[in-house]
Amino acid sequence: xxxxxxxxxxxxxxxxxxxxxxxxxxxxxxxxxxxxxxxxxxxxxxxxxxxxxxxxxxxxxxxxxxxxxxxxxxxxxxxxxxxxxxxxxxxxxxxxxxxxxxxxxxxxxxxxxxxxxxxxxxxxxxxxxxxxxxxxxxxxxxxxxxxxxxxxxxxxxxxxxxxxxxxxxxxxxxxxxxxxxxxxxxxxxxxxxxxxxxxxxxxxxxxxxxxxxxxxxxxxxxxxxxxxxxxxxxxxxxxxxxxxxxxxxxxxxxxxxxxxxxxxxxxxxxxxxxxxxxxxxxxxxxxxxxxxxxxxxxxxxxxxxxxxxxxx
Length: 312
Prior knowledge:
Blueprint: E1 4-8, H1 15-24, E2 28-33, E3 51-55, H2 61-70, E4 73-76, H3 83-88, H4 90-107, E5 113-119, E6 131-132, H5 143-155, E7 161-166, E8 168-170, H6 181-191, E9 194-197, E10 203-208, H7 209-221, H8 223-226, E11 229-233, E12 239-241, H9 242-250, E13 257-260, E14 273-274, H10 277-280, H11 290-303
Parallel strand pairs: 1-2, 1-4, 2-3, 4-5, 5-7, 6-14, 7-11, 8-10, 9-13
Antiparallel strand pairs: 10-12
């Protein structure tokens, strides 16, 4: 089935990978993005007759309301993502991550499909074995995680909605993020050859950005069976600690060294083993392994280095 899809934040890290995939599948895609990072990550799809883009703010009702009315499917990606960015701008984070989404949900009809990324960072440390399923208690600590949990509760009042609790995403994207853990550690391995770890035994789950795009399309194709549900989305064979992640990177960057630090603390205290059995039971299987993604990042960082204020 072909849909009219509205993607907010579609020029971001997830969106700039997902939007071309949606177009390739035959859908009509409208992107609303503030372009706050001055990104040009959707240049390569401007030729497509089924693509349109509006520069605007999701917090402005007169901007988003007419776009929602035209959409069969809404994919709200626009957000200030992660605890550090939300701590830097807590007011902006609340208005974008909570207030704007609350307004958007009020504008939706019960017939429209909503596919939304949330986060598994709200699990905290899981149960006594650090094991988490979709039914595990949520223990959000940071503003980012707390507001994502609140929004997910509102989202689940819609029978046509699907919430994806994403693992930590990694991989190259047209709008790159080097601050995500796998991306960050691999960048440091390529350019610095070392990283300093805190809470190195803390485990978390990971998922490739292209598999995130794939799971959204999977939900479109299987919406009748998946609607009204929450799904963890991650690599079942990649519940690994920070130290273990470094060992994966070292396999491809042999002179990479990790050093243990006595100080430092994760703002969400993420230390868990996540079950992805529920999404796998729907027939979804990730294609991109952690090691394959690390290899991809090594190639990408040959072309990418943050040297804005350096001569080399």
